Amino acid sequence: MKATTEMAKPESQRKAFDVKKIRKDFPVLAQKVHGKALVYLDNGATSQKPQAVIDTLNRYYTAENSNIHRGVHYLSERATAAYEAAREKIRSFINAARTQEIIFVRGTTEAINLVAQSYGRTFLKSGDEIVISAMEHHSNIVPWQMLCQQVGARLRVIPISHDGEVVVEEYRALLNDRTRFVSITHVSNALGTIVSVKEIVTLAHERGIPVLVDGAQAVPHLRVDVQDLGCDFYAFSGHKLFGPTGIGVLYGRSELLERMPPYQGGGDMISLVTFEKTHYNVLPYKFEAGTPHIAGVIGLGAALDYLDGLDWQQLAEHEHDLISYATEQLEKVAGLRIIGTAREKAGVLSFVFEQIHAHDVGTILDQEGVAVRAGHHCAMPVMQRFGVPATTRASFAFYNTREEIDILVSGLQKVKKVFGHV
Amino acid sequence: MSELDELYQEVILDHNKSPRNFRAMGDANRKAEGYNPLCGDQVTVYVKFEDGIIKDISFQGSGCAISKASASMMTSALKGKTEAQAQELFENVHGMLTGESNQQQGRNEVGKLAILSGVCKFPARVKCASLAWHTVNSALHGQAEAASTE
């Protein structure tokens, strides 16, 4: 990957991370809302798209649009080649061993549902246990609850500490002879905690238990190597990774994918259909029924090309500086409490005021041009764990700046002023 | 007045800080729970409905300043009203919050509740202000059985 070569360069040859220049690549950032410069701090919900991605989508629909894997004509061959080239880019991006292990889905949610239904309904039975953590997004809870209802399995939950970290000893204690699956987030969308996934995987694999990692919040911030993590499945969404909405990726180890039945039936996932019997297609097509989101896949490929052009070492340093600076500044705001104080965090700062609801904070910040998320972040059990109804969440991308954090902080002072807490 | 100042007027902040009728009611004969799954706001409305009149009304729950103030003002406004009067007020308030009714006309019909009219400029917050109203509506319509079993 790019970052490896960049890291090898002597210090003097590395260019400084020019965030002003990078911001020019994201046209949406250069606008005003409510008469103020937009400060976009809702990247955990969705990221903005570089011009390169927007141009790619435009070019695809303008000059290349065609269906894939079935046309003998020129456009179809071009679209197919671009679609499959994107699959290879994704393989390389997460360092999967084989291109056929990359399956295109709508997003992280669909990826998890695919595994729960295809793997889960085939290999889990009554009395089996599935382990998740207490800081999962609803999309890594509900598909497993649905599976539990279908097969009579039981959901077990690893508690988290007051800092928002997975308690590894509790996890170890939960694993037993009935545990058949572990599904865990890589980075918490509500707290920002980076989970030591490698350790989780190692402990599960000692007992032969497969592990799915929800990487939706991790891939925009961390360099992910699925072979190094050792996980069996890895799921993420394109739209949080500077690509289009409606496209996501499920990585699965081919040994497991080969043994799993298709998730949906339709075109492209078959090799032969008669009314007596249907023969399924090989990987990855077995799991890609129907015409896929071709433009989305090609757009996601363009996002990865864009990311490949950045120095990930510098990007990581810039993001680390942003979150450290933001933490430091928010801690100075009287009456504000940060929720999620794990040692290793990425991209997310969640906080509450004692007397002011997150929704009111969100509305007042919006009037200052600052876009944040206010609510339970589709992680209601996390809110319950910390005894708060909702939090305000500022979530960062590499195009954010220290100046924007200063605007956030002065916006928070405005919130306090409106509520008479100054 | 800016749109933001109009939303967070002194009266609203006061109702948020010291909500009126903010308590459970042991002898309520109508009760309903309201929930906004988008933001997690939750409210329980208790009504003592006797002789066709709302004799007493209270609420409990958690939510933003707008939802709390709206629920607080609602309880004050509905006490002593008949079901038909409550229904009429619900419709007028709803029209005002969503901006569907004529601004001035809407204000005249809802009295003190007109202070909430600033909400219509904030589409994302309309549900916060209308949650308690939808809840009392379901309490008055057919929630008697649910309340009486408790």
Short description:
Chain A is 40% helix and 16% strand.
Describe the protein in words.
The complex is a heterodimer of chains A (422) and B (150). Chain A is α/β, with parallel strands linked by helices and 422 residues long. Chain A has 15 helices and 17 strands. Chain A has helices at 2-8, 19-23, 51-64, 74-94, 108-123, 142-151, 168-174, 197-205, 226-229, 254-259, 294-308, 312-331, 358-367, 380-385, 402-418, and strands spanning 32-33, 36-37, 39-40, 102-105, 129-133, 154-158, 179-185, 211-214, 233-237, 248-252, 270-273, 278-280, 336-339, 348-353, 370-371, 373-375, 391-395. In chain A, a hairpin with a 2-residue loop joins β1 and β2. In chain A, α4 (74-94) crosses α11 (294-308), α5 (108-123) packs parallel to α6 (142-151) and α12 runs parallel beside α15. The longest helix of chain A is centred in the first third of the chain and has 21 residues, at 74-94. Chain B is an alpha+beta fold and 150 residues long. Chain B has a single domain (3-148), classed as Sufe protein. Chain: A. Helices cover 47% and strands 18% of the residues of chain B. Chain B has helices at residues 3-7, 10-17, 65-78, 83-98, 103-110, 126-140, 144-148; strands at residues 30-36, 41-50, 53-62. A three-stranded antiparallel β-sheet of chain B has the order 1-2-3. The relative contact order of chain B is 0.20. Classes of the chains: A alpha/beta (422), B alpha+beta (150). Chains A and B meet through α13 of A and α1 of B.
How is the secondary structure organized here?
The complex is a heterodimer of chains A (422) and B (150).
Chain A: H1 2-8, H2 19-23, E1 32-33, E2 36-37, E3 39-40, H3 51-64, H4 74-94, E4 102-105, H5 108-123, E5 129-133, H6 142-151, E6 154-158, H7 168-174, E7 179-185, H8 197-205, E8 211-214, H9 226-229, E9 233-237, E10 248-252, H10 254-259, E11 270-273, E12 278-280, H11 294-308, H12 312-331, E13 336-339, E14 348-353, H13 358-367, E15 370-371, E16 373-375, H14 380-385, E17 391-395, H15 402-418
Parallel strand pairs in A: 3-15, 5-6, 5-7, 7-8, 8-9
Antiparallel strand pairs in A: 1-2, 4-10, 9-10, 11-12, 13-14, 14-17, 16-17
Helix pairs in contact in A: 3-11, 4-11, 5-6, 12-15, 13-15
Chain B: H1 3-7, H2 10-17, E1 30-36, E2 41-50, E3 53-62, H3 65-78, H4 83-98, H5 103-110, H6 126-140, H7 144-148
Antiparallel strand pairs in B: 1-2, 2-3
Helix pairs in contact in B: 2-3, 3-6, 4-5, 4-6
